[in-house]
Amino acid sequence: MKYIVAVLKPHKLDAVRDALSNIGVNGMTVSEVKGYGRQRGQAEIYRGTEYQVHFVPKAKIEVAVSDAQLDATVEAIQTTAETGKIGDGKIFVMELANTVRIRTGEQGEDAL
């Protein structure tokens, strides 16, 4: 099993959710986060005055998938979230040791 964390532009969230649903990935956790990468924030203009925004709003999604779903999931996130502009985000893939469904006690891939 794998645990995927993706940080992307907030306006791409619904499209990514739809793309993941279409390939059979059910369930995700979404957080509103702020951060920056290589772009080091961005310049904003408010009432004619330019100021620097150091932390850019992003959406973070977390998804647990089986090993068989990994490639399709990463591809769906990457192709759907891409705008071709700086700040599109990142996808992190980690090994997931175990999963337990609290209600039934199911473990491993059965709990996904």
Automatic annotation (TrEMBL):
GO molecular function term, any single one: ATP binding
Pfam families (alphabetical): P-II
InterPro entries found in the cross-reference section: N-reg_PII (IPR002187), N-reg_PII-like_a/b (IPR011322), N-reg_PII/ATP_PRibTrfase_C (IPR015867), N-reg_PII_CS (IPR017918)
Xref: PROSITE patterns: PII_GLNB_CTER, PII_GLNB_DOM
Superkingdom of origin: Bacteria
Cellular component GO terms, alphabetical: cytosol
Modification type O-UMP-tyrosine: residues: Y51
Keywords: Phosphoprotein
UniProt-listed GO biological process terms: regulation of nitrogen utilization
Family (UniProt): Belongs to the P(II) protein family.
Subunit composition and interactions: Homotrimer.
Protein name stated in the entry: Nitrogen regulatory protein P-II
Source species: Hwanghaeella grinnelliae
Lineage, highest ranks first: Bacteria, Pseudomonadati, Pseudomonadota, Alphaproteobacteria, Rhodospirillales
